[in-house]
Fold:
Amino acid sequence: MPESTAKKIATLRQQIQTHNYNYYTLDTPTITDAEYDRQIRSLRTLEDKYPQYASSESPSQSVGGPVLDSFNKVPHEMAMLSLGNVYSEEELNEFIERIHKRLKNTQELIFCVEPKLDGLAISLLYEQGQLIRAATRGDGSVGEDVTYNVKTIKNIPHTLQGDNIPQRLEVRGEVVMPIADFHAFNQQALANDTKGFVNPRNAAAGSLRQLDSNITAQRPLAFYSYGIGIIEQGSLADSHYQRLQQLKQWGLPITHEITQETDAKGCITAYQQLLANRPKLEYEIDGIVYKVDDIALQEQLGFVARAPRWATAHKFPAQEEQTQLLDVEFQVGRTGAITPVAILEPVFVGGVTVSRASLHNADEIQRLELKIGNTVIIRRAADVIPQIVKALPGSQALKEIIFPVSCPVCDSEIERIEGEAIARCTGGLYCAAQRKEAIKYFASRKAMNIDGLGVKVVEQLVDEHLINNPADLFTLNTEQLVPLERMAAKKAENLINAIDQCKQTTLAKFILALGIREVGDATAKNLAEHFLTLDAIQNADIEALEQVDDVGEIVAKHVVTFFRQVHNQEVIQALIATGIYWPEIQAKESHELPLAGKTYVLTGTLTKMDRNEAKLALQALGAKVSGSVSKKTDYVVAGESAGSKLTKAQDLEISVLSEDQLLNILNRDF
Ligand code: 5U1
Structure:
């Protein structure tokens, strides 16, 4: 074994510890993440190759340890206490009053004021500057040994840096999952179809209490110190605030919002400032802690009933409460999106009374396994809309939640495209919820181009009940318009003329103006040129629609469903009855093209051109290209990994072409 190996390992460990300190304590990394990863990898490679140098203190150990059967019990040498609470300025004054009384003095007190993190309390034991054990709080007297797990938390130093480090030092603090990491973790869980966590606190607790520390190592946890337990053979400052600064010097993280305040007034100002800043903090907090700063006074005050007399927590309004799910309503948005909304027994949470919460879509109801009558947990983090995070397991369930099949506003069909989360009402022209948007779109420049019928005018016309759908525009007269805001007689007259003039249009613009989902101007033009008449488009089935350039299965379904709605048909008839007209479209002389009258289906992966290119090239030669195989199909072009369409073609004895055969046809000199 080369003599320099031990030295190499020691140097790498030292370098990595310095980078950890620079990154986590000083917030000023001096190397890139990639370089840091390279150093960790080099160290691990050496440690794997020369196991005689393995050390539990090595920074490489922050990837996890052996899988345990259970956690060992750890008796705390000094009990881990809990905190009393105050809920108002008055109660804070009483707390301070009690301290003055006990100390038998009235001199001004200095308080160290810290955010109260909403995580999991732990104790870290350092001997000769090395982290040798980490334990949960447990019942305050006995905790659980979570050393392997804690060593994976990136901002916890395995070795303290600097001078005057006591021989034995117990540091206490909170493990949290930062809010941004919590959201990213849940997002990933959703994508992987695995369970996420209800809130950052549960995420921290669930991640830390893993018997396999390799799992903990993959969780984005962070630690912040708030106090000291045992100190042996070493002395520390006699101010709590200074002690926290000392911990920071040694490489232990502390929160950024720690201040020193004088008496109640300063404490209350700090409370209000922290509460206002709460939405911007990187970690979740549930209050503020006021501590007598002078350690000698702390010792004089002592404890009562397992809580110190020298400290108290001032809680913020709770961000989670439980209540009952009374019902679910289905709201229809401006674009027809159907949103389930939970109706709740009103509950005070996050500083406001909440009686409704969006359930977003049908998948969310399923994910939460929600039933009417359930007791649910409502979460309203500051400035965030209220959310149902969980139904309490085993709570009463009175009724299933049934997603409607027809629109609760206009009774048109509700459509949900496979793979899309949102369900939508298809009564675009008629539905009262979509009225304003439908009319604005109808009148817009690229559709019917009604000059002077802007967004504001449409809104007033609908609000004043002068129109309910686009056809009603053609019944308006100047007398009805003049009383509207900023509508002089001349303007009203111009608008009536513009409405009248728009009647002369094109079939493509009329189709576009109907506002069918995913039918933009190019698709509307293709539909018009392909089918030539409105009747033909209205009567086309999915297969026929799929013959049109740029129309796939989804758009074809939207078109069919739109025209199937009786209410939409009625509005279209009313529009035509107003005298809207367009010039007849001449059919393109496609029968003269070489592939006229032939229907092709493309399936599987084409390697020499993409599917759309092939479709356009075939259409340019007069062929129809369909998305599905039927008796009407003449040829199926089968690319790599062709599946059910190829099988169907074989069953129906339809000619199957390879990609090369297709290329021969496209390149032929007709
Ligand atoms: N910031 C902070 N949180 N926290 C929690 N300080 C703090 N101190 C605590 C607890 C339970 O207890 C000591 C005062 C004993």
In short: The CA atoms of residues 118 and 317 lie 13 Å apart. The chain has five domains: 3-62, 75-315, 320-392, 428-577, 591-666. The chain has a mean pLDDT of 90. The two ends are 78 Å apart (CA to CA).
